[in-house]
Specification:
The complex is a heterodimer of chains A (about 260) and B (about 270). Chain A is mainly alpha-helical and about 260 residues long. Chain A is built from eight helices and two strands, in the order αααββααααα. Chain A has a two-stranded antiparallel sheet with strand order 1-2. In chain A, a hairpin with a 2-residue loop joins strand 1 and strand 2. The longest helix of chain A has about 30 residues. Chain A starts with about 20 loop residues before the first helix and ends with a helix. Chain B has two domains: about 170 residues, P-loop containing nucleotide triphosphate hydrolases (Rossmann fold, 3-Layer(aba) Sandwich); about 40 residues, no CATH class. In chain B, helix 3 packs parallel to helix 5. The longest helix of chain B has 16 residues. Classes of the chains: A mainly alpha (about 260), B alpha/beta (about 270). Chains A and B meet through helix 6 and helix 7 of A and helix 2, strand 6 and helix 3 of B.
């Protein structure tokens, strides 16, 4: 039993955002994501930042936890900023150190990009934090279902995604268990350099992989023995329903993006 | 060696919606040269407690003392060697291409040389009756064989205390009997055993002392006859048979193990016949 605080973690509480239709939320996220690339003024980005901050508050996910979701991308953001700062030659030159030059344009584009990436990840995290994984994949299937006419395997894709998502915590728990079992046999995962540590992980990875194949076999058998035979004619236990507030949300998302582009 | 847990508390995922209070102030001692049975329902905190005995989990409050010394002050590697822990379904952690290699993992980690390691592996495989499997691929073995190999993987460290978490779960009766035999012979050899189980019958067969855990608290601890004849909900088959008979035949005493119970009942029948 472990509780990760990582990117894409569902945070099960009751909030206005949790109550929205998942399909609408995916579309909202999509609209905001596209919007983030259309907006190219600082004021516009600040407007979207304010909206995202309001949404985080409305989601009832504690701000500290939410910031924790963003931790994995901090490295990428930092790298992006550094690249912009050192390699952009736009605007007035502020600093010169050997072959490195820092220009004003580099700093502004760097910060702009950093904010854009963080907002992008924030909106995506809002979606995953407020939407149960099952609702998420059901919605992906619904949204992709028009493509079924073109023989696009929407159901299979959604089922695979569901299973993959469902198995992340399972594999994580299993890895923890095996690590503790190997630790009980004297394995040490924290000592030595990166190579020693990677070597220490080998007994864990081998055992974990063998276990994963076994789980996959068992799952396939369990699904077949319960009569699973693909998506055709399959009904759902949880039906989603698109309400007025979902439409309002979509409208608001479009308005925010238009507002962001115009200011 | 003596291990003592003092008012140990442990909470999984504190401060999140997934929070679970697993141990709520457990005090318990594992005496030298005994088989301590820990029983209790699922979710009673048995496995969590087991992992505290070699500090794979560190108590959030309270302490674990090893021979009177706070275990946190001991080197982890030394503690893990002296207190061997076999997890539930330990075969999930088998990884080496051969049984021999897998069992050799722990002795090698302890820094034993090749000669000593080979000797250790040979001894432990023999003790568990799987010497003939030494060069096989562990995952191609049967469930019972895998279980024995996995237990050998911990026993190869020659621990002073062996903690077994549900060692017989999912095994056939013959393998189960064999494993209980291993427990008995280890105890004779001076190894203390902590056996976590919800199979009351097997605990009754090997335990010198029993501790009942419920909802993360110690509900009862003591000699098997004290515990099993008082806590009626948790009684092995032998006790369930003898307890009602004792009302009319107090001479039966309070047998717990199968052999004692059988002898008592035989005496009763012959006395009448």
């Amino acid at each position: 039993m472990t509780a990760g605080r990582s990117l894409g973690q569902f945070y099960p509480v009751a909030s206005p955002l949790h109550g929205l239709d998942a399909r609408a939320k995916i579309l909202d996220t999509g609209i905001l994501a596209v919007g983030l690339f259309l907006v190219d003024s600082v004021a516009g980005l600040l407007l979207i930042s304010a909206v995202v901050a309001l949404l985080v508050a409305a989601s009832r996910v504690p701000p500290g936890t939410f910031v924790g979701f963003l931790r994995p991308v901090v490295f990428i953001v930092a790298l992006t900023v550094l690249f912009q700062v050192f390699f952009s030659r736009e605007g007035e030159m502020l600093l010169r150190w050997g072959f490195l030059e820092v220009h004003e344009g580099g700093i502004t584009t760097g910060l702009f990009l950093a904010l854009r990436i963080l907002l992008l990840v924030s909106t995506a995290s809002l979606l995953t934090a407020t939407t149960a994984p099952i609702a998420l994949t059901d919605s992906i299937e619904d949204l992709l279902s028009p493509l079924k006419r073109l023989r696009f395997p929407a159901h299979e894709l959604a089922m695979m995604t569901t299973i993959a998502l469902r198995f992340i915590p399972t594999l994580h728990d299993e890895a923890q268990k095996i690590m503790r079992a190997q630790a009980a046999r004297g394995a040490d995962f924290s000592e030595g350099g990166p190579i020693r540590r990677a070597q220490a992980m080998l007994p864990v990875l081998v055992a974990l992989t063998i276990g994963a194949f076994r789980s996959a076999d068992e799952l396939a058998e369990a699904m077949e023995s319960r009569g699973y035979r693909g998506g055709e004619g399959r009904t759902r236990y949880r039906e989603q329903c698109f309400r007025a507030r979902d439409a309002l949300g979509l409208g608001a998302a479009v308005l925010v993006v238009v507002g962001g582009v115009l200011v | 060696m003596r291990i003592e847990a003092q008012d140990v508390r442990y909470v999984y995922a504190p401060g999140t919606p997934f929070e679970v209070e697993a141990l709520r102030g457990v005090s318990l001692a594992v005496e030298p040269d005994e088989v301590l049975g820990i029983v209790g329902g699922t979710g009673s905190g048995k496995s969590t407690l087991a992992q505290h005995l070699n500090l794979l989990l560190v108590p959030m409050s309270g302490r674990v003392l090893v021979d009177g010394v706070d275990a946190r002050k001991m080197a982890r590697s030394e503690l893990r060697r002296r207190v061997g822990l076999v997890f539930q379904f330990p075969e999930a952690a088998l990884f080496a291409p051969t049984v021999e290699e897998d069992v050799a993992f722990a002795p090698r980690r302890l820094g034993l040389d090749e000669e000593e390691t080979r000797e250790r592996v040979r001894e432990t495989l023999e003790l568990l009756g799987v010497s003939h499997l030494a060069s096989r691929f562990p995952h191609a073995l049967s469930g019972g064989e895998k279980r024995r190999v996995a237990i050998a993987g911990v026993l190869a460290m020659a621990p002073e205390v062996l903690v077994l978490d549900e060692p017989t779960a999912g095994l056939d009766p013959a393998t189960r009997e064999d494993l209980l035999g291993v427990v008995r012979s280890l105890r004779k050899g001076g190894t203390s055993i902590v056996m976590v189980s919800h199979d009351l019958d097997e605990v009754a067969e090997v335990a010198d002392r029993v501790c009942v855990l419920e909802g993360g608290e110690v509900q009862a601890a003591g000699a098997p006859e004290e515990v099993f004849y008082v806590h009626t909900a948790l009684a092995p088959a032998t006790v369930r048979v003898v307890r009602p008979l004792r009302e009319t035949h107090p001479g039966l005493g309070r047998p717990v193990r199968f052999e004692e119970t059988l002898a008592g009942l035989k005496g009763l029948l012959e006395g009448r016949g």
